[in-house]
Amino acid sequence: MEHHLDERHLRTLMEQSQDLHADAMRQGRTDLAEYVNAAREQRLGGRRPLVLAGLAAGVAGAAVLGTAGAAYAADTDVQVLQTAASLENLAVSTYKTALTLPYIGGASANTVVKAFAMKTMQQHTEHAQAFNNAVKKLGGKEQTAPDPKYAPIVASTVPTIKTAADVVKLAITLEDVAAQTYVKNVTQVSTGDLRQLFASVAGVEAQHRAILLAVQALLAGNAADLIALPPDGAKLPAAAGGVGFPDSFYATDKASPADEGAVK
Q1: Do the beta carbons of residue 132 and residue 142 sit within 8 Å?
Q2: How far is residue 61 CA from its own chain's centroid?
Q3: What's the rounded Cα separation, in Å, for the pair 104 and 95?
Q4: Are 31 and 197 in contact (CB under 8 A)?
């Protein structure tokens, strides 16, 4: 049986994905700007008392602790942002490589699938830029390299890729790691602005994973013709409704440590 993709509904899916991404980035830019300002004020607020040499020793000690605490929080936040950028860099390079494959971005590729891969790659590019912009404004070094833990895994996997299903499997891993990392980052960063940023971007990555899980299940069931929105409910397997959302709560056991992608 010849399988085909419903281009009209996949275009709708692309639009929905882009809308979620645009909302996250719009709010994210505001959150990052507010966070950078708050971090700068926090650091400045910690230093000011040190200039007043006449303060009592107890007050001076509290000022020193305040400075150290503010600096530690900001430094940790920089590492978290650098690690996030490294994950986004890896996703960009992986999708870029996938688009060189004939069945993803070449002559035999479905035009909508190709466009979806390109749009997802663009979204990851924008995420990386946003994270690095905050890093630079906080005085840190921009992270332009891919995540050091997962880059070798991707490099060893790429030569074994033979089908679109192989690409989907690899992409699921990367999107899941990113989503889990950003969910955990919500509990690690120092301000509400930054927590909101990571929560919103985690939603984008989780949506990517959900879509890929559904596609993976249909490809595995030799039912690529059912990859459509809305799907033909009479033909879908019983598990199709929940395959994209296997967890009641998003796990964080695969989340990257805060300093995994930090610039050394």
Answers
A1: yes
A2: 40
A3: 9
A4: yes
Sketch out the chain's domains with CATH numbers. 7-33+80-241 (1.20.1260.10)
Phi (first) and psi of residue 100, to 5 degrees: -85, -10
Distance in angstroms (rounded) separating the CA atoms of residues 224 and 218 = 6
The predicted-structure confidence for 207-254, as pLDDT tens digits, reads as follows 888 878 877 777 776 655 545 545 555 555 555 556 656 676 788 999
> What's the Cα-to-Cα distance from 38 to each of 111, 238, 251, rounded to whole Å?
45, 50, 30
- Count the Cβ atoms, other than its own, within 10 Å of residue 114: 16
What type of residue sits at position 237?
P
Both structure tokens of 99 = 């688009």
Highest mean pLDDT among 43-52, 76-85, 245-254: 76-85
Q: Is 136 helix (H, G, I), strand (E, B) or coil?
A: helix
Q: Rounded mean pLDDT of the chain?
A: 76
Q: Identify the weakest region by mean pLDDT among 15-29, 42-56, 64-78, 121-135.
A: 42-56
Structure tokens belonging to residue 195: 């927590």
Alpha carbon distance 63, 54 (integer Å): 13
The four Cα atoms 51, 66, 195, 89 give a dihedral, to 10 degrees, of 70
Q: Please determine, for residue 46, whether its predicted confidence score (pLDDT) is greater than 60.
A: no
Closest CA to 119 of 105, 103, 102, 129: 105
Query: pLDDT at residue 134 above 50?
Result: yes
Q: What single-letter DSSP state applies at residue 160? A: G
Amino acid at 153: I
